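Reading group handout, session on sequence-to-structure problems. Before we discuss, look at one worked example. The prompt was deliberately terse, the way you'd type it at a terminal:

> structure Epimerase family protein SDR39U1-like, chloroplastic

The input record follows.
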Amino acid sequence: MELWGATALTWSHIVSPSLHLSQPLSMRESRRFRIWCGSDQIQKANQMTVSVTGATGFIGRRLVQRLLADNHSVRILTRSRSKAELIFPVKDFPEIKIAEEPGWKDCIQGSTGVVNLAGFPISTRWSSDIKKEIKQSRIRVTSKVVDLINNAPYDIQPKVLVSATAVGYYGTSETEVFDEQSPSGNDYLAEVCREWEATALTVNTDVRLTLVRIGVVLGKEGGALAKMTPLFMMFAGGPLGSGKQWFSWIHLDDIVNLIYEALSNPSYKGVINGTAPNPVRLAELCDQLGNILGRPSWLPVPDFALKAVLGEGACVVLEGQRVLPARAKELGFQFKYPYVKDALKAILSQKVLI
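And the output record:
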C-alpha cells in the first residue's frame, strides 16, 4: 500500500486527544508515527461493506474468504440461512451477517457494493422445467437486487453492482474468436445471458455496473475439474466429444481477483470477460490434466454418452467457444494463471479449504 498521502495528514487529524506521549518525538520518529497512523486511517477508508448473492456457491465461497482476509465486511444474501450457516458457521465466521430475502433490503442499504452471483447450476440434464429454472433463477434474483438498490436512499445506496453473466452470451463455435465487442449468439444460453444482463442494466445510472461474463472456472472445491479429476484417477479420463472444441477457462483465484478489482476500481465498468487469456482446445486440457495426474487421456467420451447424461446441456461442452478477455487486459488486470498447465498444477497441489 502506498503511504505517501499519509505524510500530508496533520498531527491534529491523526492523534486522538486521549493519547499522551511521555516525551516529545524526534522528527524522524514523528514522521514514522504519522505514516503508521495515517496508513491505519487509509486502510479504514478503503474498507468495503459488500453484500453477496450466491455466496454459498463455488465462486462465492472463495470471494467471501478473500473479502474477509482484507478486513472487509460481508453480508450474505441467501434464500436458505441454514445452508449458508453450514458453509459459514457462526463460530468460525462471527463477522459475517447472513440474511434471508426479507432481510436483503437492510443489508443492501449501507453496502459499498453488491456482487450478484446467484443462479441455478447449468451442469445438469436439461428438462423444460430445468431450463425455465436456469433462466428464471438468474432473472429473479438480479431483478430483486436491482430493485433494492434503486429504491435505496441515495446516501446509503451501493455505489457499484458487479453482476455475473456467462460466456454463453456469445453462442458456440470452433472457428470464431469472441471478445466483449462480439454480438450475442442465438442459442438458449445466449438468450439466458441476454435477459440476465438486460435485467442488471436497469440499475440506476449513478451506480457503477460491471457485467462479468464468466468462463469455465477451474478449482479444486467444485466446478468442471472436480467432476473430471475422479474419472482420470480411475483411468477413464479423456476428451469429451471431438476434443477440438475450444475451452474458455479461468482459475478460481483469478475470477475472484477480477470481481474484487471490479468492486474497488472505478475503471472497471461495463462488460468484462472473466476468462484466462489463453483458452485451449478440450483435448489439450485433458492431456495436461492426465500428465499432471500421471494418468492417460486416451478414452474419449463419445457425444451420445454425454448427451445421455446431460441432454441438451451437453452442447456447452461439445461445441465450445474461444473467448478472450480483451477488456481485462486493457485495464491492466494481472492474471495469476494465464496458462492452463500452471493453473492445473496449482489447483491439484491445493488442499480443499471449504
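Points for discussion. First: The radius of gyration is 23 Å. Second: The chain has 14 helices and 13 strands.
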